Amino acid sequence: MAGRNFLFVPGPTNVPDRILRAMDRAMEDHRSSAFPALATALLRDLKQVFKTTTGQAFIFPATGTGGWEAALVNTLSPGDRVLAPRYGQFSHLWIDLAQRHGLRVDIIDVEWGEGAPVERIEEILTADTTHEVKGVLIVHNETATGVTSDIAAVRRALDGARHPALLYVDGVSSIAAIDFQMDEWQVDLAVTGSQKGLMLPAGLGLVCASPKALAAREHAKCPRVFFDFGDMIKANATGYFPYTPSIPLLYGLRESLAMLFEEGLDQVFARHHRLADGVRAAVRAWGLKLCARAPKWHSDTVSAILVPEGCNAADVIDVAFRRYNLALGAGLGRLAGKLYRIGHLGDLNELMLLGAIAGAEMAMRDVGLKITPGAGVAAAAEHYRSSATPLPPRAAAAPTPDAAQQPAGSKPGPQAARAAVRA
Ligand SMILES: *Cc1c(COP(=O)(O)O)cnc(C)c1O
Fold it and tell me: Tell me, what's the pLDDT at 1?
């Protein structure tokens, strides 16, 4: 098919050309004397993305799921109790992983479309006077429903209950796209993967552990080999890894961090918020509803859009892909067929997103939904126009053809002169 594929699933996200080029290199010896310069800088700089100075960063050749596992097995023992709200497919899968490691999970089932139930968490922890609960597992941004939870409020719930449980946070679809403050929120284990906000291919499971989490290793008896923090800490201390790292992904990560720091993390978050608001304006203009039940839960990285009864959202996704080369996210688990998702995270701008909104709109009309042609595109476009930052004055105009022909030292062309006056 001619033209580019429009990749709008919430991971993997678009990999910028800069990162593709950075990864396109020959393999090298990961035990050479030159290697530690790369590894040490990455482990240091990655902490800025998690907003931690006291935490320790780990880079596993894995995915977000591996990060989940690493966080749990290094800090808990089989039979330990953990508390976990479940409000979407990712919180469900993390709970399943914990159970398969022999942890006893107290599940709080929450309506899919809502976020972490802060008051329930505080009640349960307050009642747990013997401190049986060793950890609280929270998915910051539930990618299946497009719901962002308030991690600062969860921290206040733990503190309110004066409970010492470790706070585990899945930031796979939030970190590097939505503000995440590991130190400020006293998150003990924070997890992400490479293929979402970090704009890389899948293949890295990234974890940061607080000093309290590292101390918990002393008593944690879950079996661990590949994901053992201890082996990593020992090797990382001299700039190496206990086994072969993915060299291209490490160079890709270096470029990704450089891009994030060049734009500035706050600007990255603001861009995601503004782009997401445009998608939400489109959804309203279509007369449709988000799965997220209240604005406080609206995710800035993914919108899960409910289709009306009688329509199968899988058909929208199928037509979008086969007819318009647009990849939309599917409804996961019990939401299959009920919604489709537009991922809006990573390397994105307004016009890319308007293309996705146009494609979604066309595909929805193709499957028979009554959507006013152009309604969503118009609403999003107007949002982007009206919320754009004012343009700075144009510094200098390009030389006009007649100016370019003039000998050096002669007067600039009329257009350049006009630009100089304006400046
Ligand atoms: C993508 C995702 C995961 C799973 O990550 P993998 O890299 O596919 O293992 C976990 N949690 C959330 C919130 C996600 O969005």
Answer: 80
pLDDT of residue 183: 98
**pTM for this one?**
0.93
What is the 205 CA–ligand 1 centroid distance (Å)? Answer: 10
What are 351's two structure tokens?
């016009």
Domain check: are 132 and 256 in the same one?
yes
In a domain, 9, yes or no: no
Q: Is the CB of 138 under 6 A from ligand 1?
A: no
| Rounded distance from Cα 140 to ligand 1 centre (Å) | 11
Determine if ligand 1 sits within 6 Å of the CB of residue 173: yes
Per residue in 260-311, pLDDT tens? 999 999 999 999 999 999 999 999 999 999 999 999 999 999 999 999 999 9
Protein residue with its CA nearest to atom 12 in ligand 1: 172
Instruction: State the residue range of the domain holding 269.
Output: 265-386
The CATH number of the domain holding residue 274 is 3.90.1150.10
CA–CA separation, 70 vs 307, rounded Å? 37
Give me the number of domains the chain comprises: 2
Residue to mutate, 63, 94, 246, 341, ligand 1, most ligand atoms under 8 Å from C-beta: 63
* Domain end (from 200, 234, 262): 262
Closest CA to ligand 1's atom 2: 172
Q: Is 67 near ligand 1, meaning CB less than 6 Å away?
A: no
Q: How many Å lie between the centroid of ligand 1 and the Cα of residue 194?
A: 10
pLDDT per position as a tens digit, 36-48: 999 999 999 999 9
Tell me the two tokens of residue 241.
């890894």
DSSP reduced 3-state for 418: helix
Q: Taking the chain, what is the end-to-end CA distance rounded to the nearest angstrom?
A: 46
**Spatial separation of the C-alpha atoms in residues 288 and 310, rounded to whole Å:** 14
Based on the fold, state whether residues 232 and 304 are members of the same structural domain.
no
Is the peptide bond between 12 and the residue preceding it cis, with omega within 30 degrees of 0? yes
Which domain CATH number covers 165?
3.40.640.10
Atom of ligand 1 nearest to the CA of 68: 10
CB-ligand 1 contact for 143 (6 Å cutoff) = yes
Query: Rounded to 5 degrees, what are φ and ψ at 109?
Result: -80, 130
